[in-house]
Amino acid sequence: MNYLLDKIKEYVNYLLYNVKNVFSLNLNEIIESEYKKAFEILDKLGIIEYIKREYKIDYKIPELEISKDNPKFFGEYSKSENKITISKKSIKRKINNELKSLGYKEIKDLKYLNISYNSIFLYPFYINDKNIRKSIVEAFIILTMFHEIWHSIDYSILNRLEEDPNIKDRDYLLIILNSFDNPELRASAFEVVMYYYYLVNNLYKDKKGYITPYPNILACRNYIEKIDILEKNEYMKRTVPYDLGFCYANIIVAAYKSSLEKNIYRIIDNIIYLDKEIAVKVIKHYRDNLDKLLYG
User: How far, in Å, are 114, 141, 145, 163, 290 from residue 256 at the CA level?
Assistant: First the structure.
């Protein structure tokens, strides 16, 4: 009986320690660092310069604003101000929830843990010097940075399309970018692709980071079969664009694996032309040809 009580106390203390220490992290410093890191990765791959050159856009790096109190969003891009805002209050709430869901874990060595996305899919993250709190914070912030950065890219492309009637595929791209759902789908796809590149090639150069897409693809296989039902649900349909972008990108990561960097411009071109119809088509194709994706 005493042993059980001791384990319960140990577990409670663990949770309290982790939750308490989320607030002790220097969130401003981490947010600023991940913002800088995201653009360094894009610069290393030449992605911004490639899009500026190929699509003739006048892209300006958005400013960063850190909000202390706004609980309505985790991250947000303002096209009128060309600004990415990150909410510290939302970060704290999200990380607290993740720590509670992890439960008690004894961490003897540096290793990967998976954090949930939408309670269906998984993101891997690498434990940074055995500091779970900081690792989760960094993972969520850089994911958010990549997501909001793509919104800023999309807006620059949209501006160019509206100014120049002679751009190739202009009408098609205008329809895509003015659709309500497509911007979040595209930003989610970019977010996932860049996160896996960062995790595997830039951070720890550990190919085990490519393992997580496989169970996600299995989950996406089930998800796409229910999409008609989900879109009829007023609450669930709001997350469908994000989920489709997530599933599409996990398939892309699994398909390219270690050649992701080599093919990054092709992947970027595909995201620029990505819409719901294409995403669903790709997901359904690999749903029916899963062995080819996993073992081909």
Answer: 21, 25, 23, 35, 14
